[in-house]
Design goal:
Elements lengths: L2 H4 L7 H14 L15 H12 L5
């Protein structure tokens, strides 16, 4: 038996979820969501984000 066949919890149909999420956001005027403050980032995560920024990216 495959692992996904053992799952008894709720399943999410991602295309349906995506459509519903898009509609909810549009109804709310597509609000700008607050980003994570990053207060609890590990040193490795900080280094990764710095490398992305140094390479011209914006995470």
């Amino acid at each position: 038996m495959k692992a996904e066949e053992k799952w008894t919890g709720r399943r999410v149909d991602f295309p349906v979820f995506s459509d519903a999420l898009s509609k909810r956001r549009a109804e709310l005027g597509n609000p700008e969501l607050a980003r994570n403050s990053g207060k609890n980032r590990t040193e490795s995560k900080k280094a990764l984000l710095k490398a992305i920024k140094d390479a011209g990216g914006n995470w």
